[in-house]
Specification:
The complex is a heterodimer of chains A (101) and B (685). Chain A has 101 residues and is mainly alpha-helical. Chain A is built from three helices and no strands. Chain A has a single domain, classed as Helix Hairpins (Orthogonal Bundle), CATH 1.10.287.3510. In chain A, 17% of the residues are buried. Chain B contains 26 helices and five strands. Chain B starts with 5 loop residues before the first helix and ends with a helix. The chains are: A mainly alpha (101), B mainly alpha (685). The interface between A and B is small, with 13 and 10 residues. Chain A: NDH-1 is composed of 14 different subunits. Subunits NuoA, H, J, K, L, M, N constitute the membrane sector of the complex.
């Protein structure tokens, strides 16, 4: 039996890798992938915690929801990225600095 | 006559009064030659005289005419203005307009060639208007207005030769002195108004009027419902009397009259005879019932003192007009004395007779001065045309003037067959009767009046003998022969008319009994009028015997140049010659005192008031400097500091808004992390 802390360590590592990707990548697609990493870290936690929920397996249900939501969010995000590309002719987030007044 | 209603009579009186005013405006506002206006002035004053005589014939010894209309309402109190014609006012109207007409006619020659002649006529018009208005005014306020106008027009006339500095000083002095008296008049008016709620002369001072029916009880002066402490009765009487003192040049406000001689002689004549100075006596006659016994005594004392003092001054003057001026003051003193001893009608009688003979004296003196000035200008000499020491021997050269002046002098001295005898003896006799049965001190009054009348006989005969007897002294002085002529016909005829008016038949059928005078019968009669005691014989006899002796003495001294005692160096002589030092005392006490006080006040103003003001100013500057500093540094500092702070905060937070997605993410992450860390450590939230 693998202890819960291993799942959580892997989840934290995944989260940190995702976070790093989100903060450091110069490609919007890569940022999306970083976000996916972080989401997966959360989902991994949900699944791991669901072992302790004997009756309803709520964690797994949350994981399913989260996967669906992540897929929907990525679809929206890709659409935004496509539109950003159409407008700026780039998807490098460091060069898109008009997200201010 | 049905048409002669009260209303018509009053309108006629108004016309008579307003005609001279019309002259004034006509002459001033219609341009033309500098000498214009003489005929208008004479015509209008003649018309006034005719109307006055007519009014006199209608009103004298009949029902008085009193017409009034509503004047104005103030504080719920309605003032009536109107015309009051009783014996006193119609008599004064005839007198004023008559004398004024004669003076006008005289002036046509006397003032001929004056560069501002039209102003002279205009001012005369204004003066006659004010005096006539004063005479017919039926309430005290209207009377006061006329009174002020008289003062003002006399100011214009006295200063008529305004290029002379002395004339300007004289008219200013006359005006200021009169203003002092006017204050008294006004005070009296206010007291009377406060007590009786009306200023109407008839209802106040008439028979059974408010003043008569008001009583003094338990120290209060009570009139119906209103009352005030009885001291106010005396104050009111004295206040009115102060007005009369100033107008009639009585002690202590008499000093303006001698100086007023700076005006043309014809003006002096008018002012002295029937008009301005008579106004004071007239006022006293009008408001006579107001005076309490104490006030009457004061009036008598002031009158007697003034008469004596100015007669003594007249003894030693050398200026012909000044002698006459002091004589006027003295005679007015007699009238005041008569008022004070209750011989009101005698006072008015003397006022009338005095008007004629004093007018004549001045006009005759004017004729002499005119002739002297003529000599001076023709021969290009320099001498004082009014100095009697330079005259003499004019009896043969100006016979008509001499005879007229002689008649007037006899009247002034009070010798029989003249009008002056009647009126002056009436006053003397009544003052003796008044003093009878009083204490010893009040006997001083009739005796001083007796001595005064001897003085009068002496100074006027000195004048006559010096001017008309002996030889013409300027001839000796300049060692030249002069040809002196009679005055022009216009002047001469006026003198003759006046001389006739100075004789007894004008006033009384009997030359020696003043009780027969028709004039006295028309005025309120004093109970002493009947010949009940010896005074009626002794006093005239004493006056006249002594007067004749004195005239003889004057003839010996001045007429025949006999040796006379050298009293011109004695102290008394100098005392009188300097007019009892009144001017000097006034100058050194009042004028210098006021100057000193003014200096003090000036100093106070300069140092204290200005100092305070400057201090306040400086404090203001300092305060405003402080407030500027505070404003700049503290208020603005706070405001600017707040702005700066906000700016800095804004600048700080601006760094968080880079517009880059990842920076926002980091920020969000840091805040989230911070929140969790904070929550972990505080454990409370």
């Amino acid at each position: 039996m693998i202890p819960l802390s291993h799942f959580m360590l892997i989840s934290a590592a995944l989260f940190c890798i995702g976070l790093y990707g989100v903060l450091s990548k110069r490609n919007a697609i890569m940022i999306l992938i970083g976000i996916e990493f972080m989401l997966n870290a959360a989902i991994l936690n949900f699944v791991a915690f669901s072992r302790y929920d004997k009756f309803a397996a709520g964690g797994q249900t949350f994981a399913l929801f989260a996967i669906v939501l992540a897929a929907a969010a990525v679809a929206v995000a890709l659409a935004i990225i496509l539109n950003v590309y159409k407008y700026y002719k780039t998807i490098d987030p460091t060069r898109i600095d008009q997200l201010r007044d | 006559m049905d048409t002669l209603t009260q209303e018509n009579i009053s309108i006629l009186a108004l016309v008579a009064v307003l005609l001279p005013l019309l002259t004034f405006f006509t002459i001033l506002f219609i341009p033309g030659k500098a000498s214009r206006g003489g005929y208008i002035a004479i015509a209008s004053i003649a018309a006034s005289l005719i109307i006055s005589i007519f009014l006199f014939s209608v009103v004298w010894n009949r029902q008085p005419v009193h017409e009034q209309f509503e004047w104005f309402t103030i504080a719920g109190r309605t003032f009536q203005a109107g015309v009051l014609l009783n014996n006193l006012s119609v008599l004064m109207m005839v007198l004023v307009s008559g004398i004024a007409l004669l003076v006008h006619v005289y002036s046509t020659k006397y003032m001929q060639g004056d560069p501002y002649l039209y102003r002279y006529w205009a001012y005369l018009g204004l003066f006659c208007f004010s005096m006539l208005l004063l005479v017919i005014a039926d309430n005290l306020l209207l009377m006061y207005m006329a009174w002020e106008l008289v003062g003002f027009s006399s100011y214009l006339l006295i200063g008529f030769w305004f290029t002379r500095h002395t004339a300007v000083l004289a008219n200013r002095k006359a005006f200021i002195m009169n203003r002092l008296g006017d204050l008294g008049f006004l005070t009296g008016i206010m007291i009377v108004l406060n007590q009786f709620n009306t200023l109407d002369i008839t209802s106040l001072f008439g028979d059974n009027g408010l003043v008569v029916s008001a009583v003094v009880e338990n120290g209060f002066w009570i009139n119906g419902t209103s009352s005030m402490p009885d001291v106010w009765l005396n104050v009111a009487g004295l206040a009115f009397f102060l007005g009369a003192v100033a107008k009639s040049a009585q002690f202590p406000l008499h000093t303006w009259l001698p100086d007023a001689m700076e005006g043309p002689t014809s003006v002096s004549s008018l002012i002295h005879a029937a008009t301005m100075v008579a106004a004071g006596v007239f006022l006293l006659a009008r408001i006579n019932p107001l005076f309490s016994a104490d006030v009457l005594t004061v009036i008598a004392v002031i009158g007697a003192f003034t008469a004596f003092m100015s007669a003594s001054i007249a003894l030693v003057q050398n200026d012909i007009k000044r002698i006459l001026a002091f004589s006027t003051i003295s005679q007015l003193g007699f009238m005041m004395l008569a008022m004070g001893v209750g011989a009101q009608s005698s006072a008015i009688f003397h006022l009338v007779t005095h008007a004629f003979f004093k007018c004549l004296l001045f006009l005759a003196a004017g004729a002499v001065i005119h002739e002297m000035a003529h000599l001076r200008d023709k021969n290009n000499l320099q001498f004082d045309t009014q100095d009697i020491r330079l005259m003499g021997g004019l009896r043969k050269r100006m016979p008509v003037t001499f005879v007229c002046m002689l008649v007037a002098s006899l009247a002034l001295a009070g010798l029989p067959l003249t009008s002056g005898y009647l009126s002056k003896d009436a006053i003397l006799i009544q003052s003796f009767e008044w003093a009878e049965g009083r204490n010893g001190l009040s006997k001083l009054i009739p005796y001083s009046a007796l001595i005064t009348s001897w003085f009068t006989a002496f100074y006027i005969s000195r004048l006559i003998f010096k001017v008309f007897f002996g030889e013409l002294r300027i001839e000796k002085q300049f060692a030249m022969k002069f040809s002196v002529h009679e005055a022009p016909a216009a002047m001469k005829n006026v003198l003759v008319v006046l001389a006739v008016l100075c004789l007894f038949p004008v006033f009384s059928s009997h030359p020696l009994l003043f009780e027969d005078a028709w004039l006295l019968k028309g005025l309120p009669v004093a109970d002493t009028m009947t010949r009940v005691n010896a005074f009626h014989t002794i006093v005239p006899a004493a006056v006249n015997i002594m007067a004749v002796l004195l005239i003889y003495l004057a003839y010996q001294w001045y007429g025949r140049q006999k040796k006379m005692p050298a009293f011109s160096n004695t102290a008394l002589f100098r005392f009188a010659g300097n007019q009892w030092f009144f001017d000097k005392v006034y100058d050194s006490v009042i004028v210098d005192g006021i100057v000193l006080i003014s200096r003090g006040i000036y100093f106070f103003d300069k140092v204290v008031v200005d100092g305070v003001v400057n201090l306040v100013g400086r404090a203001g500057v300092v305060l405003s400097y402080l407030s500027r500093w505070t404003d700049r540094n503290i208020i603005d500092g706070i405001v600017n500091g707040a702005a700066y702070l906000t700016g800095q905060t804004g600048r700080f937070f601006r760094h968080f808004q880079t517009g880059r997605l990842q920076h926002y993410f980091v920020t969000m992450l840091l805040i989230l992390l911070g929140f969790f860390i904070f929550k972990y450590y505080s454990g409370a939230i």
